[in-house]
Amino acid sequence: MSDMVAEYGTTADGHWAARVDYLALIAIPIRDGYRLATASTRSKPISQWSAADGFGFDGQVADEASFRAHVEDCMLHFRQRAALSRTRIDLLMSTPWGPSQLATRYGEGIICFDTASHGGFFLEQLRNAAMPPALRLQDGWYEEDCDWALVATGYPDLFTDKERASADKTLRDWLPDAWEGFHGPQLERAESFARDREGFERDHAEDWIVIAATQSKAHPGDVIGIASRGGKRGAAPTRNFLIPGGEYERGRHGFVIDLSRHFRAD
To answer: What whole-number distance in Å separates Cα of residue 83 and Cα of residue 73?
Structure first.
């Protein structure tokens, strides 16, 4: 695949688009940039595509240069992946997520399983024992949402540049203890979603945080925010507050009630 090239064009409704191998992307304008929609358009020329063909999500970019850079990164990813020794194998077995349907061998003793509902990696005993302690899960099973990033970090030569970058971000955001245990330095709040969340919870432990919201019937256009101390859920006591509709936005970790402005609506 070293001769793979990207095909660029404009859709029938005027959006930037590109095709790389089986991947079709359409840049759809949103408030702060462009949403990259994956599309099922392999049988049509780009000039016949439209935003209606988009169904998946492959990130967000700021402008046309960023769109083209993303496409080039995807092309490099495909080239690097083709150069790796991943092979499909017939291996049906029980996994923590149900019976396997497909299996891909990434390397000796490292297999990725797909099931009807989920999937992930299994590292055989010697391979798992060779994982850095900060990244190792004792049972050798690494689910596909976050734990896969432990495998990609422990065995980087089996993954592409794009996958390694994604793994690093996944660990920073969702498994910061593992990232810090492997790399050493402590992550700052700006470097990790989880660390930022922890800081938010410390900063607002005594504040009322909205945990659910609904439109106000008595004040059309405004929002009733159902809040608890520190955003705790379950059996935590709650209060209702009236929030101007144009102001309410959940935000990164939750909407903080300002008692001087947001009045009780119980």
So the answer is: 16
Do 35 and 49 belong to one domain?
A: yes
Task: Look at residue 234 and tell me if it is in a domain.
Answer: yes
Per residue in 221-264, pLDDT (tens digit) is: 999 999 999 999 988 899 999 999 999 998 899 999 999 999 99
**What total number of domains does the chain contain?**
3
The answer on 91 and 167 residing in a single domain is yes
Q: CA-to-CA distance for 87 and 120, rounded, in angstroms?
A: 16
Residues 6+ apart with CB under 8 A from 260: none
pTM metric for this prediction = 0.88
Q: What are the DSSP calls for 181-206, one per residue?
A: HHH-SPPPGGG-HHHHHHHHHHHTTT
Same domain, 172 and 92: yes
Domain that holds residue 254: 204-264
**Whether residue 111 is found in the same domain as residue 164:** yes
> Which residues have a Cβ under 8 Å from the Cβ of 4 and sit 6 or more positions away?
20, 21, 75, 78, 79
pLDDT of the residue at 118: 93
